[in-house]
Amino acid sequence: MFAALVAAWLTAPRWASLLRAPLPETEESGGEEPLAEPTPGAEPVEEASPERRISVKLYLEDPERLLLVPAERSIPFAESLAEQVRLVVDELARSSPGGLLSPLPEGSRVLDVFVRSGGVVLIHLSGDTAAGPGLGSTGELLSVYSIVNSVVGNFPAASRVQIVIDGRSDGTFAGHIDVSRPLLPDLALIAPDLAATTSVEGAPGPAPPEP
Q1: Would you state the pLDDT for residue 19?
Q2: pLDDT at 107
């Protein structure tokens, strides 16, 4: 009995060191603890912001009364006046519901827009703008002042509009209406029952010629 106690006492430090030693790695564990799976949807996806738009009043031709009628439209917002005018004229060239006519034939293009001192807006249009068949003097007058009234009526910074056709600024729109100078808007061409509510300001232009 005494001999057994002596042997246990002599070997105690070696057993204690074995108990404190780390466990050997196994083939199954690979020596690494499994990593936690990332939580799905932890970072929300940002949604694209909607395009900013503004409401404008366009003056379109009423073919029965041969006058201009205002129509509300929504167009994209632009930082500069020149680009905003371009968007208005582009919208004028689109087909219009409700029996109203666009002042510009299909295929018309805005080549450039410049804003000069004093609020004069110069609009450079492609040559096919004034090439529509059977435009006539009245139709030409309504086309010109549809553009002028729509631009000046929507933008206080614009006072007058000069239309340039295919690089020529010293002639007529399509053979009748002189566009060699900047034009003021014309309230006389707006339907009488709607003229009182329009925001177009400025001296009236010429009265519509007899067809």
Answers
A1: 40
A2: 72
